[in-house]
Amino acid sequence: MAAGLRLGPLLRYVDWETGEHATVWVEADRPCTAEVRCLGAPPGEGSGKGSGQGPGEAPGPAAGDAEAPGGPSAVSPKGAGVSSKGAGGSSKGAGVSSKGAGGSARTFQIEGHHYALIPVSGLAPAASTEYEVLLDGRRVWPPADSPYPPSVIRTPAIPAQSVRVSFGSCRWSAPPARKQDPIGPDALDTLAERMAAEPESERPDLLVLLGDQVYADATSQETQRWLATRRDLSEPPWTQVADYEEYTRLYEESWLDPEVRWLLSTVPSCMIFDDHDVIDDWNTSASWVAEMRATPWWRERILSGLMSYWVHQHLGNLSPAELADDPVYAAVRDAPDGTEALRAFAARADADPASVRWSYRRDFGRTRLLMIDTRGARVLDERHRAMLDDEETSWLRDQALQAPGSYDHLLIGTSLPWLLPPAIHDVEGWNAALCRGERGARWARVGESLRRRADLEHWAAFPSSFEELTALIREVGSGPLAPSTVCVLSGDVHHAYVAEPSWPDPAPTARVLQLTCSPVHNAIHASMRVGFRFGWSRAGRRLGRAMARHGRAGRPVVRWDKSGGPWFGNQLMTLTLNGRSAELRLDQTATDRTGARLLTVDERILTDGP
C-alpha cells in the first residue's frame, strides 16, 4: 500500500542569510522517503487566488536527495550552536521562483509514528516558490480538491530591510466544520481565510506561536470520546492525555483543521511551549513537582509531553546547521526505531533541565528573535527561585548582546509576560515572598495554595529574574549602537495589551514595549476580565503596593503603564519592521452575515526611524 500523508506539511524554517534553504515537516502513515519538489515558472507568472506574483504552474524536475549544508540532524543539548546570523527580507513584490529546488529525507519512527523534517535547498532569494510533497514518489500535497492557493516557500531578498511577524498564544482546537463554536472564531482560521483572498505581499513573513499550541489537560469532547475507547476515564489522568499516542491526537485535532493546515504549509513558524502543552501549572513550584512525581501516571505524561513537543514543535525551530550538530536528532534518525533514544533524552530533560536547551535564536535580516523557555529552565528552590537557570541566563545575555549594532529590532519571545498589570505584578511578588517564608510557615502554606489556584507564576513571581531581564533590556537598549526597539512578545493571560516602562535616568535610547496577545482561540471568565482591568487602575496599584509591603517584597526598578488595551477576544498581533521603523496592528475575530473575519481594532506606529 502506498504511503499517505497523516499530518502536515508545516513550513518551519526559511533561511534569511542566503535565501536558499528551508525545512518542511511531515508525518506519514508508514515508513517512506518524503520529498519536497518545487515548481517553477518565469518571473511574473503568478499562481494562487489573489496572488498576482510568485510561483508558476509548470512542474520542475525531481529534486533528488538534496540537503541543506551540513545535512539534517536535533534538539540541542546546552552548548550547541545557535542559528547563524544573517540578512534577509520579505519577498514582497517578488516575481521570481526557484525551479528545480527541493529535497528529501527518510522518515524516522517514534512510538509507531513516522516523521520527516525535509531539508529544501536550491531556492532563490526574493522568490515565491510553489511546492508539492511526495511520499515514495507519489504526490500527496496539495490535495487535488484544495480550495486554497498553492503552498509556497517565500524567501527573503538579500539583504532585507523588512519583516512582518504575526504572533499570539493559547489556541484551543476549533470544533469540526458546521458545528457552532462556543468561544468564537479561531484567529488562525480567520487569518488563513483572509490570506487566501489577498495578495501574497500582505501575508506575514513569520508566525510566532508563544505557547499552549495544544491543551493536554483540557481535551475536547471529540477527543474524550476517543480516549474512552482506549482506557477508563474515571481513572487518572481522567480526560487529560496520558501517553504519546494521546498527545499525537491533540496535534492531529489542531493541525488537521483545513484552514490552519494550509496556513502552516505556507507561512514559516517559530514555536515555544507553555504549561498546557504539558499540564496546567507545569513547574510552578518544587512542591508541585514533588507531588506530581509521586503519582503513578506522571512519569509517562511528562516524558510523552516532552517527546511530542520535540517532534512536533521543537525540531522545526532549528536551522539546518543546528540540526546537523544535534546528537539526539542523529540518534533518532539512525535508529530503526528512535523511540528509546528520544525517551532517554526526555528523561534527562525532566531529571536535569539544565542539561537541555529549548530556547533558540533566529535572525530575520536586521531583526533578532530570542525565544525563551520559561517552563523547563526554572530553578524551583524557594530560596533561589529563578525563571531561568544560570546557564540559560548567560545564553540569553550572550545572544542579546552579540554583535551590537547588527540588528535594528530585538524581539524577546516569552510565553509569560514580563510586564503585567501593576497590581497583579505586586500580588505575585507578595506571593513569592510568602512562599519563601518571609511571614512564616503558615503564610508559606497559604502562599503555595494561592500560587497554584491563581496561576501566580509569571516573571513577577521570580523577582530576581524579573530584575535581571529588566537590566538586560536596559543594557541592550542603551548607547549609540542600540536597536530602535526592544519588544517583549508574550501571551498566556487571555487578553491583549501594550505596556511601556518609564525608566530612571539614564533611560534607554531604544523604545521598549511589552506586547501581549492572547488568546488565538480560547475564552476568559468575566471575573478575570474585571480583575485585569482593576490591575491597571489606581485603586489596584494601591492595593498591590499594600500587599507587597505585607510580604516585605521589594519594589521593581521601573514603573510602567499600558498604552493600549486591555482587549478581550480571539486575536493576533502583527509587527511590521522596516529599517528602524516599527508598526503594530491588533486584529480580532468578528462575525457578520458573511461569516468570520479579522477586524483591526488597533494600529499604531511604534517608531518611525529611517
TrEMBL record:
Biased composition (Gly residues): 43-57
Compositionally biased region (Low complexity): 59-85
Top-level taxon in the UniProt lineage: Bacteria
Domain DUF7800: residue ranges: 3-39, 96-153
Gene3D superfamilies membership: PhoD-like phosphatase
Region: Disordered, residue numbers: 37-104
Domain PhoD-like phosphatase metallophosphatase: 194-522
SUPFAM superfamilies, alphabetized: Metallo-dependent phosphatases
A Pfam family assignment: PhoD
Cross-referenced InterPro entries: DUF7800, Metallo-depent_PP-like, PhoD-like_MPP, PhoD-like_sf
Name this polypeptide is given: Alkaline phosphatase
Organism: Streptomyces tirandamycinicus
